[in-house]
Design brief:
The chain is an alpha+beta fold and about 290 residues long. The chain has eight helices and six strands; from the N terminus they run E-E-E-H-E-E-H-H-E-H-H-H-H-H. The termini are close together.
């Protein structure tokens, strides 16, 4: 499920912003963008994200904005002198004079001016970790709001499939009556020719009854719809279970369509399939 959470933290020398984003994904996949100071805690943050968010393509960003002093630096004088000596010798060989700008050039040479490594204190990490937890909570609140809307939509579509199933009942009786008339006509025509095989006729009757009977499919589909609604109302991560139930619903609808042998029932089956496909699309957004 998609979501976004954000938290900010003010420390004496810096401001920290934590953002957590998630997109739909069947698996858990985390991408962390951390300042060098917090990279040693990447493993701990991944475990935290996995335990709290369970699934999704997750992105965690931690940004530091320093207030006032930007930190301390170390100037390597000995290395700078070595660079200067080499530059002076090269200038003499080329017949050139060194200008005052050489000092600025030396400061940009590798390893001449280096920022001192800042140590991460236990107190700061506790504070930053709590900010990450707060951002995750914000993301989960976002998910819950989206989940409530999805639950309402899925339940309405499931109820609609059940109502469409009820519309099959009167059409089923009409279909059987048409079949009876067709068989009676064939029987009358065969009797007029004096070629009625009663054993064969009984076999045909049994065949048509078995082929066209959709009682079991209707019962199973109704139970699947009810079970889907029950699981939807449960707490916890039920996305995969709902996916399995929707597959069973699809099997019963397909069998219902193949055995219908009636244009009006086929139209209802098409409407059921349309609602079921919308349900399956929404299930990709559920944990």
């Amino acid at each position: 499920m998609t979501g976004f959470g954000r938290s900010t933290l003010e420390l004496p020398a810096k401001s920290i912003t934590v953002e957590v984003k998630s997109l739909n994904s069947k698996q858990f996949d985390a991408n962390l963008r951390l300042p060098p100071l917090y990279r040693e805690k990447e493993g701990e943050l991944r475990l935290l994200l996995n335990s709290e968010l369970e699934r999704g393509k997750v992105e965690l960003n931690i940004n530091i904005d320093r207030n006032g002093e930007s930190g301390s630096y170390q100037f390597n004088r000995a290395l700078a002198k070595q660079y200067f000596t080499e530059m002076k010798l090269l200038a003499e060989e080329l017949g050139q004079d060194l200008t005052s700008e050489v000092i600025y050039t030396l400061a940009r040479m590798p390893d001449v001016l280096k920022a001192e490594q800042e140590a991460l204190s236990v107190e700061e990490w506790k504070t930053v970790r709590q900010a990450v937890v707060d951002a995750i909570r914000g993301l989960n609140d976002f998910r819950r709001k989206e989940g409530a809307a999805l639950e309402k939509d899925l339940l309405e579509r499931t109820i609609l499939i059940e109502k469409l199933l009820e519309d099959v009942q009167p059409l089923e009786g009409k279909r059987i009556e048409i079949l009876r008339e067709r068989l009676k006509k064939q029987l009358d025509e065969s009797a007029a020719k004096g070629s009625v095989d009663m054993n064969r006729f009984e076999q045909e009757i049994v065949y048509y009854i078995e082929k066209f009977d959709i009682t079991e499919e209707k019962v199973r589909l109704k139970k699947h719809c009810q079970y889907f609604a029950e699981i939807l109302a449960e707490q916890g991560s039920n996305g995969k279970k709902l996916g399995f139930i929707s597959q069973e619903m699809g099997r019963e609808i397909n069998t219902l369509g193949s055995k219908a042998n009636d244009a009006d029932i086929q139209k209802i089956v098409v409407l059921m399939k349309d609602e079921l496909e919308k349900i399956k699309e929404q299930l990709f957004n559920i944990l």
